[in-house]
Amino acid sequence: MILIPTGAFLIEFNSNSEQETFDLGQRIASHLGQGAVAAIQGELGSGKTTLVKGIASGLGILETITSPTYTIVNEYEQMYHIDAYRLSGEDDFEEIGGSEILNSGKISVIEWSGRIKKALGGKTIFINIEITGPSSRLIKIKGASFNL
């Protein structure tokens, strides 16, 4: 763990398989409180949805998790899964009820979160996934009070 001068934490993980990324998602879930937002960034194929599947599993969600690329938002009992890829910015997010989603008290997990970064609040943890090899990823987690 590296302390960032702004007071936020930056934690880095090396994942060498989809299973390790999924397992990390489960660990992240245990640290997400009511109303928390997990904002995930990473290029296509980096493992964003795999991480979300792990988070959902860690929250006890038994439903099949799929990327909501075309529906934009999938709602589960304890979590919203948002894919902002097709949104052009914060105005689009607001039009689909973004503020209500983020203030619902449920955990919100957002793929392609960079498209709506200005809409995210103080309970947000930022997760960046970098492809470092055919099956390896560097996953960086940053948040004001997040600590694994």
List the helices and strands and how they pair.
Elements: E1 2-3, E2 9-15, H1 18-29, E3 37-42, H2 48-58, E4 73-75, E5 79-83, H3 90-95, H4 98-102, E6 107-111, E7 124-131, E8 137-143
Parallel strand pairs: 3-6, 3-7, 5-6
Antiparallel strand pairs: 1-2, 2-8, 4-5, 7-8
Helix pairs in contact: 1-2
Write up this protein:
Helix content is 23%, strand content 29%. By secondary structure, it is of the alpha/beta class. A hairpin with a 3-residue loop joins strand 4 and strand 5. Helix 1 packs across helix 2. The longest helix has 12 residues. The N terminus is likely disordered.
Features:
single chain; 148 residues; alpha/beta; Rossmann fold; eight-stranded mixed beta sheet; globular; disordered N terminus
Largest sheet: 8 strands, mixed
Low-confidence stretches: 1-6
Secondary structure tally: strands: 8
The order of strands across the largest sheet is 1-2-8-7-3-6-5-4
The second-level CATH architecture is: 3-Layer(aba) Sandwich
Name of the CATH homologous superfamily: P-loop containing nucleotide triphosphate hydrolases
* Estimated share of beta-strand residues: 25-35%
* CATH fold topology: Rossmann fold
Helix-residue proportion: 10-25%
Count up the domains.
Answer: 1
Estimated structural class:
alpha/beta
User: Separation of termini?
Assistant: 9 Å
Gyration radius, in Å = 14 Å
Output mean pLDDT: 88
CATH class: Alpha Beta
Q: In a few lines, what is going on in this structure?
A:
This protein is α/β, with parallel strands linked by helices. 23% of the residues lie in helices and 29% in strands.
